Amino acid sequence: MERTGLDYANKLHAEDPLAGYKERFYIPERNTLDMDGLTKSIKPIIYMDGNSLGLASKDVEEEMKAEFERWKDLSTRRSGVDKKAAELQSKLVGAKPEEVIVTGSASVNVHALVSTFYKPEGKRTKIIGDELNFSSDIYALASQLRLKGRDPKEDLIIVKSRDGRTISEDDIIAAMSDEVSVCHLPSVYFVSGQLLDIKRLTEAAHEHGIIIGYDCCHSVGVIPHEFHEWGVDYALWCNYKYMNGSTGSIAGLFVHEKHFDVTPGLPTWWGNSPSNRFDFESEWTSTGNAESWHLGSNLGIGFGVSPVYASSKMVVEAGLDRIREKSLKATDYLMYLVDELLTGRPYNYSVGNPREAERRGGHVAVEHEEARRISMALADRGIIPDFRPPKVIRLSPIPLYSSYQEIWEVVQHLKAVIDNKEYLRYEADKKENF
Ligand SMILES: *Cc1c(COP(=O)(O)O)cnc(C)c1O
């Protein structure tokens, strides 16, 4: 059987143990261009952007309706959904249940955690960040330095990329010294999809007495972690990407149990020990677990957290190992098709993410000089990619709802927009984001 043919995609689909999950999601239909680029018909979109915003599921819908019912009869605070969500999330990151809470947003959690652990003392005054991390993280690191009276120009070490796509672990480790207090990195780079070696970096940081934490927005829900065992000091992640936990869903936060006696940088009444939570005169006291880092009550219970509970339940039920296995198989297949069918003239596509399974996350970074216009053409064909300037088309097959046939079809569309010179229909400099 030709591995580039549709039959092979059908075969992979027939062997896919997660294929049944797709029907639990809502896949919108749109009137979009057919393969010929001329006629249009109403069909379900092919969604390759779940690493940016996951699709809505019936599971989440049911749980949000249930939360509304709990609000109606005021049983919301007794439901325990917040603790159940945190416990499920702890399984996804390899933590003890008491090490994880659902609170805040990813960006605010970076502030909450760095403000907790960055304590400039003597000559240990620096923070390590890197050139390719998400903007929020770098803003937070610079701001946390300023809030403690330090100058980011002096004390923020930004590890540079050698190739514009990836960061070498060796370069990060080379930046570690006894002048560094905190090292803050992503697990997976949001543009190139590079997965860092968290275990190795954590060990290296600890050899230098450095606290190390990770922004795992691009890995939680698609890559298993072992935060507790690896001794990771802290981590945070959002729940609306691979977790499909809904727009505006509350984020996750991990603090290793060895730090349970540390006072949070942003203490709140809800993070206060339950025994004196309503005792407004006394001093803030630790809960003795990660709950100390709660950013107020409204973020930890109710509408933000109930969809996280439902989506975490689905991911745990499907099995993170099976999810990672399918993600690797699907991204391998996509890279294979790009290599076989779309490299060289006239197509000129290439794969920009690391190739090795242990070095890549859940998306493929397809590169092309015309990436912006191609992304626009794809959208009119009902394929939803994610364009990242200047030349990356992120394509993320989501294990719970993307099929191998869809991957095959996406590649046919990538080919057709070049064959038909269809991307020339779009303005090159339009500032539209996908
Ligand atoms: C998506 C993402 C965020 C988003 O932050 P919010 O506070 O949820 O808006 C932060 N960091 C990284 C690495 C991301 O990929």
Q: In which order are the strands of the major sheet placed?
A: 4-10-9-8-7-5-6
- The coarse silhouette is globular
Query: What is the first-to-last residue Cα distance?
Result: 36 Å
What is the domain total for the residues?
A: 2
According to DSSP, the number of beta strands is 15
CATH class of the largest domain: Alpha Beta
Low-confidence segments: none
Mean pLDDT: 95
CATH topology type of the largest domain: Aspartate Aminotransferase, domain 2
SSE class? alpha/beta
- C-alpha Rg (nearest Å): 23 Å
Order of helices and strands: HEEEHHEHEHHEHEHEHEEHHEEHEEEH
Helix content: 25-40%
Q: Sketch the major β-sheet.
A: 7 strands, mixed
CATH superfamily of the largest domain: Type I PLP-dependent aspartate aminotransferase-like (Major domain)
Assembly type of the chains comes to single chain
